[in-house]
Amino acid sequence: MKKVKLGPQTLLYPMPAVLVGAQVKGKPNFMTAAWCGIAASTPPAVSVAVRPVRYTLDGMTANNTFSINVPSADLVEKVDYCGIYSGHKVDKSQIFQVGYGKLKTAPLIQECPINLECKVIHALDLSSHILFVGEIVETYVNADCLTEDKVDPAKVDPLIYSTVAREYQRLGKVVGRAWEIGKKTDVR
Questions:
Q1: In which band, very low, low, confident or very high, does the pLDDT at 65 lie, cut at 50, 70 and 90?
Q2: Which of 8, 83, 141, 148 is 20 to 30 A from 96 via CA?
Q3: Which of these, 93, 127, 129, 126, lies nearest to 21 by C-alpha position?
Q4: How many domains, the chain?
Q5: Contact between residue 121 and residue 34 where contact means Cβ atoms under 8 Å apart
Q6: Residues 171/14, Cβ–Cβ less than 8 Å
Q7: Whole-structure pTM over 0.85, yes or no?
């Protein structure tokens, strides 16, 4: 198959559309981020890249805490709103029902089926973004998103962001079972 060179680009799929929460000047604030992913399993950690101009960054650095809130597809309008409008100009503290867990400065969005409460363990300046690595101190999941006590991605219905198309999508169908389907290929 012919390959086409595109130069350095951020084409890694899927990219989740998450809401990063932080307490800024005494109020909860949320920003949309797609550059977010699991960073480690022990301790459980997540990474998220935040532009230095983002209002949420102020709370993340001041408190050394943040939340990753995984919205379902039905929250797409509010997710996009939080990406369009800056907390510098718009008070986003009333958009969602907000709660707090162990960390009192990492606001959790009650409407999101999954919430990760994080404390900052590293911040790396990458010029265009600050890459935060947060240790996940607690995970909250809506009970109706579980099947046999395990998170069911279909029930979570998370948003996926497509950079090139500039659109939100849903997860697709299952194509195989992990650590099983690969056994059908024998290249030894």
A1: very high
A2: 148
A3: 93
A4: 1
A5: no
A6: yes
A7: yes
